[in-house]
Amino acid sequence: MLVVSIDVSGLVVVVSAHTRSRSPARCTGCGTLSEWVHSPYIRHLGDVALGGRPVRIDLNVRRLYCENSACPKVTFAEQVPGLTVRYQRRTPLLQNLVESVGVVLAGRGGARMLRILNVGLSRCTVLAQLMRVPLPPLVTPRVLGVDDFALYGDTYGTLLVDADTRLPLTLWEGRDAEQLSRWLREHPGVEIACRDGSLTYRQGIADGAPDAVQVSDRFHLWQGLSRRVQEVAAARRGCLPEALPAPHVTGAELADTAATESESADTPASRHARRLFESVHALTDVGRSYSSAARELGLDRRTVRKYARARTWHEVVRRPPRRPSTLDPYLDYLQQCWDEGEHSAKILHQELLAKGYLGHYQRVKMAVAPLRRGLPLDEPRERPPSPREAARWIITAPDRHGPHTTDRLRRLLEHCPELRETHELVRQFADMLHDRDAAPLPRWLDALQASGLAPLAGVATALREDQHAVAQGITTPYNSGVNEGRITDLKLQKRIMAGRAGVPLLRHRVILIAHIRRRYGDTPLTASR
Fold first, then answer.
1. What DSSP string runs through 447-494?
2. Rounded distance between C-alpha atoms, residue 181 and residue 489, angstroms
3. Integer Cα distance of 296 and 273 in angstroms
4. Is the pTM of this model over 0.85?
5. DSSP string spanning 177-189?
6. Are residues 188 and 211 in contact, defined by beta-carbon separation less than 8 angstroms?
7. C-alpha torsion 517→518→524→526, nearest 10
8. Backbone angles phi, psi at 74, to 5 degrees
9. Do 32 and 15 form a contact (C-beta atoms < 8 A)?
10. Under a CB-based contact definition with an 8 Å cutoff, are residues 185 and 208 in contact?
11. C-beta separation of 383 from 241 below 8 A
12. Which three-class secondary structure state does DSSP give residue 196?
C-alpha cells in the first residue's frame, strides 16, 4: 500500500509517496516476510511524462532485517510491485518506453524522441539500455532461410530467418560454410533449408544438416538466367537495330550506314574505340583470358569482354539517334518560319513560347543549326534497343508486352536465330516455374548445353551441379522471399545508424524490432467497448 501526494507547482511533477509502516515486506533473497525495520530511505524514480511535464517519484521505502537466519542477506530494501525494480531508477513503464524507443530508433534518434517525450537521456544510455534487453529464446525452425547481405565495403554477413514465422533468428559477419554448419549442428532439427545458388551455403548446409532438404530459390534461378540472356544479347549487338521498323531501308542497311558514318567521322571517340578494339583482340584472339588481357591493358574485365565479343569496332562506338524532346511538336512550325525568312533563333524562341513551348532558348538554337548549314532539321528517330532492353523483352511474359514491344521483339527474333533460340529456352523454364513441374528440367539442361551459346552453357553446368535443389525450388512452395524482405529491413536499420553499428548491436535491433512489429503491428490501437 502507498500513501501518495502530488506537487505540480514546478516544472517537474513531483509525486511523494511512502509505504505503510506496518505492512510486512518480502525478503528479496529468500522470500521470507519480515516486519523488523532497519531504517527508511528515499528512492528517486523517473516516470513517463504527465501533462507534457517530466515526472519524478520520491518514494520513501524501508530497509528491513531478514528474519531468516539461514538467508545470506542481512538487510534488504522493500520493493513495490509494478513501481520499483532492484538497482533501477526508472519505473517499469518508463524503462519499457526507453527500451522500445531504443529498439526502433537506435541511439541518436532514440535520444531525440525521448527528449520530445520529456525524458532526458544520452544516446549512449539509450544504446546501453537497448543492449540490456534480452533476446527472445531461439527456437530451431523447421524451414530455415539463409542469405547473405553487404555489411560494409567488401565485407558480407549472413542472416538466418525462420521461414514459417518470418522472424529473423540471428546474423553474423562473414559468409563461410564453417560458421553455418556449426550453427546447424548446435541447433539440430532443420528439415528444409532455402538458399540461393551459393556454393558456400550449399556446403555449409550439407555439413551441418545433411538430412535437410536444400531448396534453391526460384527468384535467384530466374535472376541468374536473366543475366546470361543479357550476355547473349550483348554478344549480338549487330542484330539489335533489326528490331526497328524499316519502311524504306532494311535493318542491315541501317547498321551499315551507321558503321559508315562512324568510320567516316574521324572523332576522338572513334579513334579510341578502334585502338581498344585492336588491342583487346590482339590478346584474346590468341587465347588469352579476359582477366589476363585486362591486367595487361589496365582495363576493367567487363570492358575487355565487351570489346572481345564485338565483331567490329563500330559496334562499340555507334552514333545513337537523337532522343525525342519537348521541341518535337513544334518542328514543322519552326521549319515554316525558317522558310519564310526568319533566321534569328532568339525571335524563333519567342514565337514558340507564344505557341506554348516551355523549353529553353538553347534547344531552339541547336535545332536550327543544321538549317544554317543547308541541312534539314534533325528529326528524332527511334533508338535501337540496348542489350539490357532486349533481354528484358525476352524474359518478360508475352502477355505482359504491349503491341509496340511485341512487334519489335518479333522482328528481332525473326532476324537473329540465336536470340530466337534463347527466347524459346527462357519460355520453357518459365513454364516449369509456372506449372511447378521439374520433369522437363534434364531435357532443358541438355538443350542449354547444345545451344552453342557460351553464357547458356555456363548456366547448364552450374545447375547440373545443384540439380536436386533446383528441382526442389521449382516444385516446392518454399523460397527465400522472406529473407529478401528481412535483408531490406536490415539495410534500413543499418542506414538509420549511419552504417556505424557493429554486428552485436545490429543483431539486437534486427531481431527485437521484428518482434515489436509482430506484437504491435496487427493489433489496432482502439479503445475496447
1. HHHHT--HHHHHHHHHHHHTHHHHHHHHHSS--SHHHHHHHHHHHHHH
2. 25
3. 17
4. no
5. HHHHHHHHHHS--
6. no
7. -80
8. -90, -45
9. no
10. yes
11. no
12. coil
Lookup result for grid cell 516476510: 33
DSSP code per residue over 211-230 = TSEEEE-HHHHHHHHHHHHH
> Is residue 117 classed as helix, strand or coil in its secondary structure?
coil
Beta bridge pairs of residue 214: 193
The CA distance from 503 to 526, in Å, is 37
Distance in angstroms (rounded) separating the CA atoms of residues 261 and 218: 45
Q: Give me the tens of pLDDT residue by residue for the chain, a chain 529 residues long.
A: 466 666 666 688 888 888 876 788 888 888 888 888 888 888 888 888 888 888 888 888 888 888 888 888 888 888 888 888 888 888 899 989 998 898 888 888 888 999 888 888 898 898 898 899 899 999 999 999 999 998 887 889 999 999 999 999 999 999 889 999 999 999 999 999 999 888 999 999 999 999 999 999 999 999 999 999 999 998 888 888 888 775 544 444 444 544 444 444 567 777 888 888 889 999 988 888 999 999 998 889 988 988 888 877 776 765 555 566 788 888 888 889 988 888 899 999 999 999 888 888 888 888 888 888 777 776 666 678 888 999 999 999 999 988 888 998 999 999 899 999 999 999 999 999 999 999 999 999 999 999 888 899 999 999 999 999 999 999 999 988 889 989 998 988 888 887 677 889 999 999 999 988 888 765 454 443 3
Q: How far apart are CA 261 and CA 86, in angstroms?
A: 84
Task: Provide the sign of the torsion angle of the four alpha carbons 23, 27, 30, 35, taken in this order.
Answer: negative
Measured distance CA(258)–CA(236) in Å, rounded: 16
CA distance 479 to 470: 11
Could you give the CA distance from residue 481 to residue 221 in angstroms, rounded to a whole number?
A: 13
Terminal CA-CA length for the chain? 30
Please report the DSSP string for 487-516 in residue order: HHHHHHHHHHTTT---HHHHHHHHHHHHHH
Rg (CA), the chain: 36
Residue from 401, 421, 404 nearest 413 by CA: 421
Query: What length does the chain have?
Result: 529
